[in-house]
Design brief:
The protein is of the alpha/beta class. It has helices at 28-37, 47-53, 55-64, 83-102, 128-148, 172-182, 196-199, 205-216, 246-255, 277-291; strands at 11-14, 20-21, 24-25, 42-44, 68-69, 72-76, 108-111, 153-155, 190-195, 217-222, 262-264. α4 (83-102) packs parallel to α5 and α8 packs across α9 (246-255). The structure holds zinc ion.
């Protein structure tokens, strides 16, 4: 396993981690500046942040600073109640592929969606199997376009607590079943994003990481699981502050040949988003060295 204790060469910052500084929204150009000042070489930005600043400006800043994108967040949300909704999702996902390509991202991360309407507060139905079928169909359709754009798609299995509203792919095994179904040749066009927050609890995790192999391991996201967790979405912990044995998972991933960035992705409304963002980044650097 690579030694992270001496530097932060392989640290990437998911830009949601410092989406806010002292509770105030921080524009993406300032996030980039703060990362560059600290010799952080990679980021993973969110589409809404890119849209707010404008894709041309962000593309220019990324190139100017020689930044890499460990991923682009995010595509997905494939489910809908009718053909028009499915088509709208597909169109939006094609735009996400185009943006990821413009920014030269390593992959487009997919949060696949679940019961339509649930995220807004009212699920249109309870048929999770239908949602899963729509997700597989949606990925199959997008994969053709993504292949032509040479943009790998990374399915991110989400913790089962999000099965109703954000993602009905909840384990590595499920994600890899879809990968094997749609890309049996392991061409590198389709794989997974392993986020320790979502998969750390899974008794099959090591076996599924081994099953994935280098070709399917497209991204590695880190943060920590706090006890207690007070919010299902926005109470992620800094690496080292919770119960996830992160180095163990990184060892498994790297044993397969993964040699990419370790991407810090922390949504923390009550804690880290209330801190000054430079201090948060400095803590990310420290913990990347000591707890990842
Ligand atoms: Zn993630």
């Amino acid at each position: 396993m690579r030694d992270f204790s001496q530097d932060h060469r392989w640290l990437s910052i998911n830009t949601a981690t410092i989406r806010k500084s002292k509770g105030v929204e921080l524009p993406l150009p300032q996030i980039i500046e703060a990362c560059v000042e600290r010799d952080i070489r990679a980021i993973s930005p969110w589409r809404d942040q890119v849209a707010a600043a404008g894709l041309p400006l962000i593309s220019r800043l990324v190139k100017q600073h020689g930044l890499e994108l460990s991923g682009y967040c995010r595509g997905g949300m494939f489910t809908a109640t009718d053909a028009g909704g499915l088509q709208a999702a597909h169109d939006d996902n094609r735009r996400a592929v185009d943006e990821a390509r413009e920014l030269n991202a390593k992959c487009l991360v997919l949060v696949v969606g679940a019961l339509p309407g649930a995220l807004a507060g009212k699920a249109a139905h309870k048929n999770l199997a239908l949602a899963r079928d729509q997700v597989t169909d949606g990925i199959a359709q997008l994969l053709e376009y993504a292949r032509s754009a040479e943009m790998p798609l990374a399915i991110e299995p989400l913790h089962p607590m999000y099965a109703a509203d954000r993602a009905c792919i909840n384990t590595m095994e499920q994600a890899l079943d879809v990968c094997d179904d749609l890309d049996p040749g392991k061409t590198g066009a389709l794989g997974v994003a392993v986020d320790v927050y979502h998969v750390w609890w899974d008794p099959k995790l090591q076996a599924q990481i081994e099953r994935a192999g280098k070709e399917r391991l497209l991204a590695f996201h880190v943060c920590d699981w706090l006890t207690p967790t007070t919010d299902m979405l926005n109470d992620r912990g800094m690496m080292g502050d919770g119960v996830i044995y992160i180095p163990q998972i990184r060892r498994w991933v790297e044993a397969q040949g993964f040699a990419g960035y370790s991407e810090v992705e922390i949504f923390s409304a009550a804690n880290w988003w209330q801190q000054e963002h430079g201090e948060t980044l400095d803590t990310c650097i420290q913990r990347h060295r000591s707890a990842v």
